[in-house]
Structure to design on (135 residues):
C-alpha cells in the first residue's frame, strides 16, 4: 500500500491507494491453449508460404487463422497487426502468426505488479541460457 500525506492541510491523515484490476481478461492461458495457438499459427504460416502466389486463398487462410486464434486466445488487439502484416504481398515468407502468438503470450506474461508468468519466465530463462552459450 502507498501512503501519501497531503501538503495543503495541517492534518496528517494517510491516504491509501488501492490497485484496481484492469478489465482486460488477465487469466493466464493453459499450456494446452498455448500449444494449440502455436500449432494453428505454425500450420497457417507453413500453408501461407505455399499459397504466396494465390492471394485469395492466402487471405481466406489468414482470416481463418485470425478467427481461430480469436477463439483460442480471446480478444487480443495484437491479432489486427498480424492481419495487416499478412495482407502485405510477400510477407507470407515470414512466420508472422507465430510471432503474433509469441508477442501475445509475452505481453500477457507481464502483469501490473511486475510479475512474470510461467511462459514468459521460461522464455527468459531459455534466452539467457543461449545468450550465455554464445559468449
Amino acid at each position: 500500500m502507498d501512503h501519501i500525506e497531503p501538503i495543503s492541510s495541517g492534518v496528517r491523515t494517510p491516504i491509501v491507494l488501492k490497485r484496481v484490476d484492469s478489465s482486460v481478461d488477465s487469466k493466464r492461458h493453459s499450456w494446452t491453449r498455448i500449444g494449440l495457438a502455436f500449432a494453428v499459427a505454425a500450420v497457417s504460416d507453413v500453408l501461407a508460404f505455399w499459397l504466396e502466389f494465390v492471394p485469395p486463398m492466402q487471405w481466406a487462410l489468414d482470416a481463418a487463422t485470425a478467427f481461430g486464434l480469436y477463439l483460442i486466445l480471446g480478444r487480443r488487439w495484437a491479432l489486427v497487426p498480424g492481419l495487416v502484416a499478412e495482407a502485405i504481398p510477400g510477407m507470407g515468407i515470414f512466420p508472422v502468426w507465430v510471432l503474433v502468438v509469441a508477442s501475445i503470450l509475452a505481453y500477457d506474461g507481464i502483469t501490473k505488479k511486475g510479475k512474470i508468468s510461467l511462459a514468459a519466465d521460461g522464455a527468459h530463462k531459455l534466452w539467457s541460457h543461449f545468450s550465455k552459450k554464445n559468449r
User: Anything to note?
Assistant: The first strand starts at residue 2 and ends at 4. Confidence is low (pLDDT under 50) at residues 20-26. The chain has one domain: 30-133. The first helix runs from residue 31 to 50.
